[in-house]
Specification:
Blueprint lengths: L14 H14 L2 H11 L6 H14 L12
Amino acid sequence: MIQAIPNWRRAWRMLSVQIAALAVTWGALPIDTQQAVLALAGVPAERVPALLGVLVLLARLVDQPATRGKGGA
């Protein structure tokens, strides 16, 4: 059975959730807009999935006190 995490109401504060939302937003952009942004940033398009993956992994490792409940853990 699938069960939500205890602090699901604070999920929007989680850095990994914010990066996932960025990934969804990025995917919703028109391809030409994505290409223009990547050209400005100097990032090859084939590196975007790996870059997003690394960002999510790093975000999961960051201590985020604002996402904890009153108990602190």
